[in-house]
Amino acid sequence: MFARAFRALDVPLGDPSEVALLPTDLTEIRPLERRVDTLLRFTVPTGQFLLLVEAQGEADSDKPSAWAYYLAHAHAKYRLPAVLLVVCHDRRTAEWAARVVPLGPSFWAGSLTMSPLVLGPDNVPVVTDPATAAADIPLAALSAMTHANDPSIDAILKSLAAALREIDEEDAHVFAELTELGLGNSQALDTWRQLMTLDLSFFRSETSQRLRDEGRTEEVAGSILRVLERRGFAIGDDVRDRVTSCTDLDVLRGWLDQSVTVATVAELFEV
């Protein structure tokens, strides 16, 4: 009947060889952690909208569906139009992210389409001059994010750090946090954290402590995964994401102790 309905709507769908009735309850029984890098609400003369910002270091075939989930969930939760901005560290990743990705079937691709805005090396200039960075700190921060893999990244970060010394502490803190998020997992992230922890002495001590704590949580999370891999366990994406996204150092240390003796990966989280 529904196949006939498609033809009545002039949708080019052939006769199906099989139709399976699936459960209609789409409620997620197990909590699924989904975190967008940054979520902002903009108020402009024409109204309000949501801006979801993702830092992307490489092409990832799982991302388009995850991004679509973020947009749909944010729209349903806040009842506002939503826009996705992807910040990329290299030209190839930017070209990949800028593709229009239809998530609907070929005969009606428009039912769901992913088309993010993309910032990358091609549309953001390199800012290495401290005076230029001081004159336009938002541009300097975007330069750091989009040129994270560029040979000049150290000079970009130092120029931005110098510029942040000259502005209000609260504003500097915001730009420092956004830059950190935009650098993703690039090697430049370590350089930026060192600059923020050591060079910018006007930052509050709890900020520096948080940066150091985050570094420790990443190390412990990596140790957990390495122990499990060395013991021959297959680590699924859900386990990897749960371990790497955990920010509680005490919990991670408990998991690390467990990883040495557990019989299954599932036992890891029973501590």
Strand order of the largest sheet: 1-2-3-6
Q: What does the average pLDDT come to?
A: 81
Q: What gyration radius follows from the Cα positions, in whole Å? A: 22 Å
The topology string of helices and strands comes to HEEHEHEEEHHHHHHHH
Individual helix count: 11
Please, how many domains? 3
What are the key terms here?
two-stranded antiparallel ribbon, 11 helices, four-stranded mixed beta sheet, 6 strands, single chain, 3 domains, 271 residues, alpha/beta
What does this structure look like?
- The chain is an alpha/beta fold.
- It is built from 11 helices and 6 strands.
- It has helices at residues 2-8, 63-78, 91-97, 130-135, 137-146, 153-164, 169-183, 188-199, 205-230, 237-245, 249-259, and strands spanning 38-44, 47-56, 82-88, 101-102, 113-114, 117-119.
- The strands form 2 sheets. It has a 4-stranded mixed sheet, with helices on both faces.
- β1 (38-44) and β2 form a beta hairpin.
